[in-house]
Amino acid sequence: MSKTLKVALAGAGAFGIKHLDGIRNIDGVEVVSLVSRDLDKTSEVAAKYGIGHVTTDLADSLKQPGLDAVILCTPTQMHAAQAIQCLEAGKHVQVEIPLCDSLADGEKVLALQRKTGLVAMVGHTRRFNPSHQFVHKKIAAGELSIQQMDVQTYFFRRTNMNALGQPRSWTDHLLWHHAAHTVDLFAYQAGSPIVQANAVQGPIHKELGIAMDMSIQLKAANGAICTLSLSFNNDGPLGTFFRYIGDTATYIARYDDLVQSHSKGAETPVDVSQVDVSMNGIELQDREFFAAIREGREPNASVAQVLPCYQVLHQLDRQLQGAGQ
């Protein structure tokens, strides 16, 4: 497939704009339709990025002539249903993390993907960030084996705001969204399925109805372990910080920066600028999506590959509900 890929993007918020910025750097791809709930704001974004069609209804985008694929950056609660809508319309689909907020919905997406044979991919960006790619390449080369991952995912988000500081129309979730990044990455980097999982959570927020703090423990079949701490209450450094403790080295990833840690407290910066063609994980994620469509293959972070992550999240969700926390 050498023709220009025609793509629709649903969701003109903070993450939708990140995808639009990344796609600008990718040849042979044209965003032909932009979908979001506020027509005026969506039109402004479309004008900035030269997108000719604007709508508030995904069905309108799916009818655009020659449309090949859709990228979904919509609220979590819409992901699975919209992914199914795209596949039923015969379009390849990339849905931002999380794939779903219930395992049953994720299983429906996978069943339809297998029936249609279309590319269906989930935005598990950590698989693509150069810092994590560097560690993965070490593991694949047999130079490093993960013994433990210690991960902190911290935000200061005591009100329902997005990454741009704008009010959200939906409620985010530590387990089904933010934990999904690390649960998937741990199994991916360990090269072994998760066989044991445990979670506890803090008080439920009176207005938002969600836990604002959570702690998760994981164990892979090969013995590797992971501890994940998550908070929306953190008034301090924001983001997700990964410590990889391996059998031959320890690495710390902070956003796209990677350092090797030493026993006396020193940290040696690791140059990850040449790991891939870009330092932008979202752009690299999109490049994989488009390459898989052109090459007729399964992408890294396909629905099939990431579904085990949602099986673990389902188990943790049931555990938390059963504990009455």
Give structural notes.
With 325 residues, the protein is an alpha/beta fold. The chain folds into 2 domains: 5-123 and 281-298, NAD(P)-binding Rossmann-like Domain (Rossmann fold, 3-Layer(aba) Sandwich); 126-279 and 311-323, Dihydrodipicolinate Reductase, domain 2 (2-Layer Sandwich). 35% of the residues lie in helices and 26% in strands. The protein has 9 helices and 14 strands. The strands form 2 sheets. The chain has an 8-stranded mixed sheet with strand order 8-9-10-7-11-12-13-14, covered by helices on one side. A 6-stranded parallel sheet has the order 3-2-1-4-5-6, sandwiched between helices. The mean pLDDT is 94.
Question: What is the CATH architecture term of the largest domain?
Answer: 2-Layer Sandwich
Which overall shape is indicated by the principal axes computed on the Cα atoms? globular
Classify the fold: give the CATH topology of the largest domain: Dihydrodipicolinate Reductase, domain 2
Distance between the termini: 51 Å
Count of folded domains: 2
**Nearest-integer average pLDDT:** 94
Assembly state of the chains shown: single chain
Strand order of the largest sheet: 8-9-10-7-11-12-13-14
Q: What percentage of residues falls in helices of 4 or more residues?
A: 25-40%
- CATH homologous superfamily title of the largest domain: Dihydrodipicolinate Reductase, domain 2
Tally of helical segments: 9
Low-confidence stretches: none
Largest sheet, described in full?
8 strands, mixed
Structural class: alpha/beta
Task: State the order of secondary-structure elements, H for helix, E for strand.
Answer: EHEHEHEHEHEHEHEEEEEEEHH
The total of beta strands comes to 14
Percent of residues in beta strands = 25-35%
The CATH class of the largest domain turns out to be Alpha Beta
Radius of gyration: 20 Å
